[in-house]
């Protein structure tokens, strides 16, 4: 079966609220933090959640929240007590896909998606990531979970001849972009030396190539065409959306290419009627949890042949004034790793850009944007959304 | 980057300590049990989907590609040599504590298999992608992944 954008009504994002991102949010509980983002999103959408939202979707995971059956605690801070709510143990863009499909059924006019990160609450964050490894094989070696990212980086860089300098320049670009983003936690100016001389965590992966965690939350309001017309909202339309997983197993997965990006993007482009993403899309927000992933993901998304994104980066094409702006928000490296909220970070930036509200980092004339998320190691799960002002 | 630890000096009413202790015994299953028993006997067992002409290591009871069931007759001992496809030197343990003695993990394409085998790389001075490696056994074998000490460059 194919998802096509043809049937029934169009779906738009009509409101976004962001709280954070900061290395630690210690004055607010997770519920208070989500409430802050929700109020901003509803104000942006001109929506009363107690009366006008038909379905709520929360993206969160028990281990990260420190409570089992944590979904039971999702509703009230969204204005969703005694309402239609479900949770997704996955990235925020997967939540956006669910909201999109629910509106498409015709059963719901307005949907809300929420994702958050409370990583500073977790005293043993490394262990949670470690527990995501297969217990019988991979978990047995007791290595820091970045070991999987390191093995992949070596495979990718050696297969396609990607230099350490190019990867360092992803780090430099994204931290510098973050200086222009008030929602970003890790804005800074670095030199190649700062990146390349940093300590190895798991070779060839250095500390500086690995995104640092943050706390924060994002709430997104989606609606059908009828509501968009009724409300004085500023809609950004969803043109194409999809998600895919490669094999979860270390033995059978693809290690050199971002197969999950290839699979999800192919279907999203088909749905959006995009033939040449490089030329038809104006602004890109692409997962850079590890710096090399930005390049590999752009290639998986079909913008470049494998190994060729590095050259475009070094030519300055990915800056906010370049021909292919990538992660002008700062990306995950610059905004901070919000884990399952990373996808909504990417979405929120594309919405700001297409609305022309991105301030000093505005990409001039941006009409169509792409958001891509990856769930991080050890997953091979990715999700893509193509948004447009038209 | 490794997570930062919160400042120890804090207003104690701001947070409440808690933990999430969960324990399991994970069931190995048919294919993994066979595989572990093989390791105990110094044998590396894979299995082959004849339809796809594809050999799995570790073995599985179904082919990921064509989804056919892989029965008892599909298992075979594979060579104890292979090619180093990737490696990483590990400087931190799973808790994020710095290791006094870093070690290597690797992906190895064992000869006559089509998958990546994840294990330690040991006693190898200058690891290089594409080098030949050979399995090194633990003398004290109990039927676990640790019956292999790892693979060594040859
Ligand atoms: Zn098969």
Explain what this protein looks like in three dimensions.
The complex is a heterodimer of chains A (390) and B (154). With 390 residues, chain A is α/β, with parallel strands linked by helices. Chain A is built from 15 helices and eleven strands. Chain A has a domain at 11-123 and 214-230: Peroxisomal Thiolase, Chain A, domain 1 (3-Layer(aba) Sandwich), CATH 3.40.47. In chain A, strand 5 (200-202) and strand 6 (205-206) form a beta hairpin. Chain B has 154 residues and is mainly β. Helices cover 7% and strands 36% of the residues of chain B. Chain B has one helix and eight strands. Chain B has one helix at 30-40; strands at 44-49, 54-56, 75-78, 81-92, 98-110, 117-121, 132-137, 148-153. In chain B, the strands form two sheets. In chain B, strands 6-5-4-7-8 form a five-stranded antiparallel β-sheet, with no helix packed on it. Chain B has a three-stranded antiparallel β-sheet with strand order 2-1-3. Chain B is globular. The model of chain B has no long low-confidence stretch (mean pLDDT 94). The site of zinc ion has 8 residues of chain B, from loops.
């Amino acid at each position: 079966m194919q998802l096509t954008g043809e049937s029934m009504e169009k779906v738009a994002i009509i409101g976004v609220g962001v709280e954070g991102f900061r290395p630690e949010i210690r004055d607010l509980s997770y519920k208070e933090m989500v409430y802050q983002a929700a109020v901003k999103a509803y104000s942006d959408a001109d929506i009363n959640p107690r009366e006008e939202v038909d379905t709520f979707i929360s993206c969160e995971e028990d281990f990260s929240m420190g409570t089992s059956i944590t979904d039971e605690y999702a509703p009230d801070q969204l204005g969703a007590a005694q309402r239609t709510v479900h949770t997704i143990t996955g990235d925020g863009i997967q939540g956006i896909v669910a909201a999109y499909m629910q509106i498409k059924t015709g059963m719901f006019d307005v949907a809300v998606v929420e994702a958050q990160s409370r990583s500073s609450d977790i005293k043993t964050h490394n262990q949670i990531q470690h527990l995501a490894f297969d217990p019988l094989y991979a978990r047995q070696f007791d290595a820091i979970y970045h070991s999987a990212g390191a093995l992949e980086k070596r495979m990718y860089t050696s297969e396609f001849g990607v230099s350490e300098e190019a990867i360092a320049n992803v780090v430099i670009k994204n931290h510098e972009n973050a200086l222009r983003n008030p929602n970003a936690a890790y804005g800074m100016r670095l030199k190649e030396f700062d990146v390349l001389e940093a300590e190895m965590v798991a070779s060839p992966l250095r500390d500086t190539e690995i995104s640092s965690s943050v706390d924060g939350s994002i709430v997104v309001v989606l609606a059908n065409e009828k509501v968009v017309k009724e409300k004085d909202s500023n809609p950004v339309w969803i043109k194409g959306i999809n998600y895919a997983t490669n094999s979860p197993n270390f033995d059978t997965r693809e290690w050199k290419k971002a197969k999950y990006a290839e699979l999800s993007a192919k279907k999203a482009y088909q749905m959006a009627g995009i033939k040449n993403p490089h030329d038809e899309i104006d602004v890109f927000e692409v997962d850079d949890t590890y710096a090399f992933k930005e390049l590999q993901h752009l290639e998986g998304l079909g913008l470049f042949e494998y190994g060729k994104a590095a050259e475009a980066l070094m030519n300055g094409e990915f800056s906010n004034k370049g021909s292919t702006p990538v992660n002008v928000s700062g990306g995950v490296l610059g905004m901070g790793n919000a884990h399952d909220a990373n996808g909504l970070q990417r979405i929120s930036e594309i919405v700001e850009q297409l609305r022309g509200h991105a301030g000093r980092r505005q990409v001039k004339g941006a009409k169509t944007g792409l958001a891509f998320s990856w769930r991080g190691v050890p997953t091979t799960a990715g999700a893509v959304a193509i948004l447009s002002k038209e | 980057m490794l997570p930062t630890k919160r400042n120890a000096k804090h207003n104690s009413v701001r947070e409440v300590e808690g933990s999430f202790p969960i324990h399991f015994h994970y069931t190995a299953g048919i294919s993994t049990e066979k595989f572990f028993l093989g390791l105990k006997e110094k044998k590396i067992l894979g299995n082959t989907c004849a339809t796809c002409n594809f050999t799995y290591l570790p073995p599985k009871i179904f082919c990921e590609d064509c989804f056919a069931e892989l029965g008892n007759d599909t298992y075979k001992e594979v060579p104890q040599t292979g090619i180093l496809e990737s490696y990483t030197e590990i400087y931190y343990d799973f808790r994020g504590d710095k290791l006094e003695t870093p070690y290597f993990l690797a992906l190895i394409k064992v000869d006559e298999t089509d998958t990546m085998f994840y294990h330690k790389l040991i006693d190898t001075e200058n690891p290089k992608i594409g080098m030949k490696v050979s399995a090194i056994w633990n003398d004290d074998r109990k039927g676990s992944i640790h019956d292999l000490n790892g693979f060594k460059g040859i």
